[in-house]
Write a structure and sequence with these properties.
- The structure holds 2 protein chains of 2 kinds.
- Helices cover about 50% and strands about 20% of the residues of chain A.
- Chain A is an alpha+beta fold.
- Chain A folds into 2 domains: about 160 residues, no CATH class; about 180 residues, no CATH class.
- In chain A, strands 1, 3, 4, 5, 6, 7, 8, 9, 11 and 12 form a 10-stranded mixed beta sheet that branches.
- By secondary structure, chain B is α/β, with parallel strands linked by helices.
- Chain B has 2 domains: about 220 residues, Rossmann fold, CATH 3.40.50; about 45 residues, Ribosomal Protein L24e, Chain: T.
- Chain B is about 30% helix and about 25% strand.
- A 6-stranded mixed beta sheet of chain B has the order 6-7-8-3-9-10. Chain B has a 4-stranded antiparallel beta sheet with strand order 2-1-4-5, with helices on one face. In chain B, strands 11-12 form a two-stranded antiparallel sheet.
- In chain B, helix 3 crosses helix 4 and helix 3 packs parallel to helix 5.
- Classes of the chains: A alpha+beta, B alpha/beta.
- Chains A and B meet through helix 1 and helix 9 of A and helix 1, helix 2, helix 3 and helix 4 of B.
């Protein structure tokens, strides 16, 4: 007589893993909710991280420059000390292929507001040229040396109104508008001439922003003249490293904790579900279930809990994001397809890791447990 | 070896432990079961019945001897091949029914097919047919907690037989059933053994099963004994083998034998109330 082996991937077979989990719906819902919270945390942290990244590169993303000309040795836009002659602008404009060139001065300053020290990124540009605020949400852009436009988040957070004065580095400026900014970077836009006065550095600038359709050729030409030239992606990447260094570790740790919680919850849920039915699994083993069948049973149960947790986690995330948007609108939570893929990958990995212990216990189970002692 | 036998057991022994603490649970047992034959094995608790059943069911390795089913010696078959052997060549009926609580009656039977490598429509058809055969056509989609004890055991019988095994091992199949359900289960077992030409080895204390058994064997201290010398305990009616070690009691010059000290004490308290229930000596 032939002996057939059961394939654990056989279609049309009794869905024992699903039935076992659905037999105790309250436990399944509780497990899915707990895993869902872990997935939500992973998605929210990922979303916040995406938001931070987007915040940090918001200037580079919106200003529209293809190249940034800077002092040799300069590697990033924010926080860099770059000073080049203002005449560099004319040099750049003369290069074939350059559509436009505009000087921008940037430096970090500490603003005292209501006895608090607020770091802000000062950007000085030539009104009418690129490099200034790309979107004015209220009021208008500065035109004179005594006017500034501040970021909307900063204005809301510190209740600053258009028409009010703000002291910067010992000089008073009038707020004439609010612009788009982010919780990571508070922008204060002023004229390039105003920054010349503040720093006492006339005839210089920090960067020359360049618009061109031939960035590679223009870059090569300008680099040959001794200037540092970077493209948008290079600056964005380095700014990200500088600005997010402080956040990377805690967010990474929180992601790790969420992942570990997810694993523990799935493992505990599947383990207890299996131990509750230990005798039944002994029966299945006595009836001829192979080791692989039992391992796949443990894995399937873990995957079902993880899948339910992933769905719950996505719903929790959407709710959490809505709450954050309502309560703390300055925090941008950005959900990307990569974030979803990472969370799904995390859920699958959780299931794989979590199934190890129950699978080992099942593999060790004696089929004789199906019998009474005697 | 008798090739016509469904199962051929030769010189089967199982010893637990070694040296002075060694316990011989089964000693040099020989057993041939013909296709379609129902063999009832009786014996007191601790006599080695379950150990023997576990070895016949390929769930425990014998210390010595052979168990040949369909030409395969279970005693020497590699461990990794035993699950497939159990799924294809053996069927199991347990005392506590041991149905999977999350599955319906139909799914419980289908699962046995799945484990033997049969799935989908074929598994479903086989399971349905057998459940209808045992009279459960109205209960196919009921869960075990919605079935009576007798119905559960009929599902268990269908599950044991669905892969058309050579041998079905039944461990106290009527122990948790009332007398009418117990008799019904015994009848179903007998009929299916004949219909499917399937051998059934039943381990039980239930005297009623002798009615359907082709042979009854008495296992005591790990070895088969002559059943003719057995007597019934006047208190619990269990069959016992009279020996110096068996609890006994003299009443009106007659010796009565008991399965345990408890039955002996109960009898000694009021012998008259038991004497009309027994055929001892």
């Amino acid at each position: 007589m032939a002996t057939r082996s059961a394939s654990h991937n056989m279609p049309g077979r009794v869905p024992l893993a699903r039935r076992n989990l659905l037999a105790d719906p309250r436990r399944l819902v509780a497990s899915a909710a707990a895993v869902g919270l872990a997935i939500m945390l992973i998605l929210l942290l990922d979303g916040l991280w995406n938001g931070i990244n987007r915040s940090v590169t918001t200037y580079e993303d919106n200003v529209g420059a293809d190249l940034y000309v800077a002092q040799p040795g300069t590697h990033n836009f924010f926080g860099a000390v770059s000073q080049i002659p203002l005449s560099s602008v004319d040099l750049v404009r003369k290069q074939p292929g350059v559509n436009w060139a505009s000087p921008v001065r940037t430096f970090l300053a500490i603003v005292s507001l209501h006895d608090r020290k607020i770091p802000a990124s000062i950007i000085g540009w030539m009104p009418g040229q690129p490099g200034g605020p790309w979107e004015i949400s209220k009021g208008r852009a500065p035109r004179t040396k005594n006017e500034i436009a501040i970021g909307r988040v900063m204005a809301n957070r510190h209740n600053l109104q258009i028409g009010e004065s703000l002291e910067l580095m010992g000089r008073k400026f009038q707020i004439v508008g609010t612009s788009t900014d982010t919780f990571m970077l508070s922008f204060i836009f002023m004229t390039h001439a105003a920054t010349d006065q503040l720093l006492g550095a006339s005839d210089t600038t920090s960067f020359v922003l360049v618009g061109t359709n031939r960035p590679a050729e223009v870059r090569a030409e300008l680099a040959a003249s001794g200037l540092a030239v970077h493209n948008r992606d290079e600056f964005a990447a380095r700014d990200l490293v500088v600005m997010t260094r402080a956040y990377a570790l805690p967010i990474g740790m929180m992601r790790g904790v969420a992942f570990a919680i997810g694993i523990l919850v799935i493992a505990l849920s599947v383990y207890t579900a299996m131990m509750d039915r230990r005798r039944e699994y002994g029966i299945v083993k006595a009836m001829g279930a192979s080791r692989n069948y039992l391992l796949s049973l443990a894995l399937r149960q873990s995957l079902i809990v993880a899948a339910a947790g992933f769905i719950a986690g996505t719903l929790f995330f959407l709710g959490g994001r809505a709450i954050i948007a309502a309560v703390r609108p300055q925090f941008t939570v950005v959900l990307t397809s990569a974030s979803i893929a990472r969370a799904l990958g995390a859920a699958i990995l959780m299931a794989l890791v979590a199934s190890l212990i129950p699978a080992r216990r099942l593999a060790r189970l004696e089929p004789a447990t199906a019998y009474r002692g005697g | 070896m008798r090739t016509s036998s469904a199962i051929n057991v030769h010189a089967l022994s199982k010893t637990f432990g070694e040296g002075e603490i060694a316990v011989n649970a089964v000693r040099n047992v020989d057993l041939d079961v013909e296709p379609g034959e129902v063999v009832l094995i009786m014996g007191p608790s601790g006599s080695g019945k379950t150990t023997l059943l576990l070895m016949l069911g390929a769930m425990m390795r014998p210390t010595t001897g052979s168990i040949i089913i369909d030409g395969i010696d279970l005693a020497t078959t590699p461990e990794r091949r035993l699950p497939a052997l159990r799924a294809n060549h053996l069927g199991f009926i347990f005392q506590d029914f041991n149905l999977l609580s999350a599955l319906t009656a139909l799914e419980n039977v289908e699962l046995a097919c799945n484990l033997a490598g049969i799935a989908g429509r074929e598994a479903s058809d086989r399971a349905t047919e057998l459940l209808q055969r045992v009279g459960l056509n109205e209960r196919l989609h009921f869960h075990p907690d919605q079935l009576s004890g007798g119905e559960k055991q009929r599902v268990a019988i269908a599950r044991a037989l669905v892969n058309r095994p050579t041998l079905v091992l039944a461990d106290e199949p009527t122990a948790n059933l009332d007398s009418s359900h117990g008799r019904e289960i015994a009848r179903v077992l007998r009929e299916l053994a004949s219909e499917q030409n399937c051998s059934i080895v039943v381990v039980s204390h239930d005297e009623r099963l002798r009615e359907i058994a082709d042979r009854t064997l008495w296992l005591e201290d790990g070895a088969f004994r002559e059943f003719d010398t057995m007597v019934a305990d006047p208190v619990c009616t269990m069959t016992v083998h009279p020996s110096d070690a068996t609890p006994h009691y003299q009443h009106n010059g007659i010796t009565y034998w008991f399965c345990s000290q408890t039955c002996q004490k109960d009898f000694a308290t009021n012998p008259g109330s038991y004497l009309d229930r027994t055929n001892q000596p």
